[in-house]
Amino acid sequence: MFRVLFFAVLASFILTDLAPAWAQDRVELAQTEKRRTLFDMLFGEEEAPPPPPPVRQQRTRKAAPAPSAAVSVPAPTIEKTQSATRVAVMGDSLAVDLAKALERRYADDPNLQVIGMGVGSSGFVRDDFFDWNREVSEQIAADSFDLAIVIIGINDRQDIRENGQNYRPLTEGWSAIYKDRITRFLNQLRAAGKPVIWLGLPPMSKSNYSSAIGEISALQRLASVSGGAEFLDIYERFLGEDGKYSSYGPDVNGQNARMRKDDGIHFSSAGADKIAFYLNQPIRNFYRGGAVTVAVSDPLRGTDAGAMVRLPYQGLGQTRLLEVAGAVIPLGRSAAPAGTLLSASDVPRSQPFPIEQLVGAPVGRVDSFGVGIEPDEISRAATP
Question: Which of 21, 264, 284, 302 is exposed most, by the fewest CB atoms within 10 A?
Answer without folding.
Answer: 21
